[in-house]
């Protein structure tokens, strides 16, 4: 059923996600810190642009956000111009930001005091997944709030799953990032070794991708890694931010993350080399630089 919705944050993820909501027939109002981008979205998709998160959220059944970090999500939800100030009792706020579990619990408590629902719902699938409506969405919050928002999230999510109470979505996203990080480093080392050993690396990938070594990273990144191409995809800066969240939570939980901590350092090296906007698969370039003596 068509709903009145708001979408806050029109970055590389939020812009197409909001577009899918419009394409599904929802009445969409958008807010973006850079007003020109909101105006561009409206010109393409229709709907309206608002000057503040509060104005965007006023009268909305569902309010979605996809911004940068803990401070950003606080800024667009709390205070006199925040979305919570414009929402009516019973409305649900869905946060697609990859942020800490702590801020998810904090905002869920603030929403509850105002009679609002809150779902932390970080996504996996990257820009391509957002554009194609094929994201995996990991949710935390009350079942009633999740149920109200689930059908709308399906506009851009191929899998939308409630993982538990507030913060559970963010914790699941941490599991995702920890797993991806190890896979990318392992793939980088494997491909680097294949090239150093004089193998036809593309043929090696074709062979091993039919067995237990196969992964999404291998299917979608191996050839570009071999070609030393990284001007696309999920940026090192974003992964570095995410891994900081993972490592902080690991310390709180008493969970050792030695490989994650090591690869976090590797990404720091790539940032210092000017590669903050390179795709995360650029870990292989770091190995090449090390072996060439330039790293």
Write out key terms for the chains shown.
elongated; single chain; N-(1-d-carboxylethyl)-l-norvaline Dehydrogenase, domain 2; alpha/beta; 14% strand; 2 domains; Rossmann fold; 14 helices; 9-stranded mixed sheet; 295 residues
Provide an overview of this structure.
Strands 1, 2, 3, 4, 5, 6, 7, 8 and 9 form a 9-stranded mixed sheet that branches. The protein is elongated, with a radius of gyration of 20 Å. α9 packs across α11 (216-226) and α9 (168-196) runs parallel beside α14. It contains 14 helices and 9 strands. It has 2 domains: 4-165, Rossmann fold (3-Layer(aba) Sandwich); 172-292, N-(1-d-carboxylethyl)-l-norvaline Dehydrogenase, domain 2. The model has no long low-confidence stretch (mean pLDDT 97). 46% of the residues are buried. Helix content is 54%, strand content 14%.
Work out the helix count: 14
Helix content: 40-55%
> Average pLDDT, to the nearest integer?
97
Instruction: Describe the sheet with the most strands.
Output: 9 strands, mixed
Q: How much of the residues is beta strand, in percent?
A: 5-15%
Distance from N terminus to C terminus (CA atoms, Å) equals 55 Å
Question: Mind telling me which CATH architecture of the largest domain this is?
Answer: 3-Layer(aba) Sandwich
Give the tally of β-strands: 9
CATH class of the largest domain: Alpha Beta
Would you identify the CATH H-level superfamily of the largest domain?
NAD(P)-binding Rossmann-like Domain
Query: Rg from C-alpha positions?
Result: 20 Å
Poorly predicted residue ranges: none
SSE order in H/E notation? Answer: EHEHEHEHHEHEEHEHEHHHHHH
- The shape is elongated
The count of domains is 2
Helix/strand class:
alpha/beta
What's the CATH topology label of the largest domain?
Rossmann fold
């Amino acid at each position: 059923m068509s709903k009145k919705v708001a979408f806050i944050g029109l970055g590389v993820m939020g812009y197409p996600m909001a577009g899918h909501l419009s394409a599904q027939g929802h009445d969409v109002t958008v807010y973006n810190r850079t007003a020109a981008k909101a105006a561009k979205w409206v010109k393409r998709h229709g709907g309206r642009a608002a000057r503040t998160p509060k104005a965007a959220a006023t009268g909305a059944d569902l309010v979605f956000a996809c911004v940068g970090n803990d401070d950003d999500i606080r800024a667009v939800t709390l205070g006199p111009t925040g979305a919570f100030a414009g929402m009516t009792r019973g409305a649900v706020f869905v946060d697609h930001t990859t942020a800490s579990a702590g801020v998810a619990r904090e905002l869920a408590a603030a929403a509850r005091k105002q009679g609002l629902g809150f779902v932390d719902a970080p996504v996996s699938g990257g820009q391509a997944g957002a554009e194609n409506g094929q994201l995996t969405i990991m949710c935390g919050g009350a079942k009633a709030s999740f149920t109200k928002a689930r059908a709308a999230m399906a506009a851009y999510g191929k899998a939308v799953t409630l993982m538990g109470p507030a913060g559970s979505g963010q914790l699941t996203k941490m599991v995702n990032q920890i797993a991806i990080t190890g896979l990318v480093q392992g793939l980088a080392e494997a491909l680097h070794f294949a090239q150093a050993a004089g193998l036809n690396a593309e043929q090696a990938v074709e062979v091993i991708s039919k067995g237990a070594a196969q992964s999404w990273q291998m299917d979608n990144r191996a050839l570009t890694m071999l070609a030393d191409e990284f001007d696309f995809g999920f940026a090192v800066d974003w992964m570095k931010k995410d891994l900081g969240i993972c490592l902080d939570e690991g310390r709180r939980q008493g969970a050792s993350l030695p490989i994650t901590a090591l690869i976090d350092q590797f990404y720091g090296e790539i940032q210092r080399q000017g590669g903050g906007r390179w795709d995360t698969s650029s870990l292989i370039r770091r190995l090449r630089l090390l072996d060439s003596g330039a790293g």
